[in-house]
Amino acid sequence: SALCSYSLKPSEYTTSSKASVLCPKLPVPASAPIPFFHRCAPVNISCYAKFAEALITFVSDNSVLHRLISGVMTSKEIILGLCLLSLVLSMILMVIIRYISRILVWILTILLILGSLGGTGVLWWLYAKQRKSPKEAVIPEQLQVAEDNLRALLIYAISATVFTVILFLIMLVMRKRVALTIALFHVAGKVFIHLPLLVFQPFWTFFALVLFWVYWIMTLLFLGTTGSAVQNDQGFVEFRVSGPLQYMWWYHVVGLIWISEFILACQQMTVAGAVVTYYFTRDKRNLPFTPILASVNRLIRYHLGTVAKGSFIITLVKIPRMILMYIHSQLKGKENACARCVLKSCICCLWCLEKCLNYLN
Q1: Is there a domain that residue 282 lies in?
Q2: What InterPro entries does its record include (predicted)?
Q3: Same-domain pairing of 166 and 299
């Protein structure tokens, strides 16, 4: 194969004096074509060992990656333990929802009311204690700070009181809805008993997301070597992108967010379809053999456009929020209080809008 520079003819590989400059050092490791991306891969396994060694060297030299990997490796037992704990707690919660949903709802309601009352009482007690404390004992430099703390405690106590009153009114008005909530919990417990494979849906979704992220990173690497190969001052070749290609990474980032949201929305639609099939089938013996596969089939045949549109709407809201978060992180410590307040307010409003659109979708 023509391994040398194109300016040298293959017949001159061994006869020309320029061969030592224009040709690579031989022997070149034997390679074989692979059916992806029109590339050749080395046949000798030792080449991959060298690649792994170079990758490890790169990771160890990169301070951010090194801190990230060392942090994960240091606390890997804690991470695995918390993952197992969350799985066990999820299973326990499913059993609780199935058998003691009525008690659970009332316990949560009572705890919420008691927590609101307790928090409000503590805030008023702290305010009264701060107000009764002698001001003569405070040095003049800290007098303004003490007054600010007293004013803040008063605002917090009034806000907590208003919240508690509103909560009591909501509980009073919506007390009949508690029975509906209990019934929904009961049905949810039955769904998990009859459709146990729903538990594994998050695993399949995570697997699909990992595959997509690997593909996205590979495409990003290919984008890094697009454009024209130009020799720089040091004699190395670098790829300089010009024209529309230099903006393609924006398109690529939007695709990352959109398709990730699309995969998550497919999971939600699949779960919803399976639950609806179970709920509206009066005779449970007439359920499809696999309601989850039936839901996937229905999703692919009729609802992919719905999922794509809904996830695109979420993307349109998520991107401005991420831009604002990036600006906020870049300006940290440089902006004034007003700009910081406006940025955080915009980020919070976009987050709320995103959550509302998620529920609407």
Answers
A1: yes
A2: Choline_transptr-like (IPR007603)
A3: no
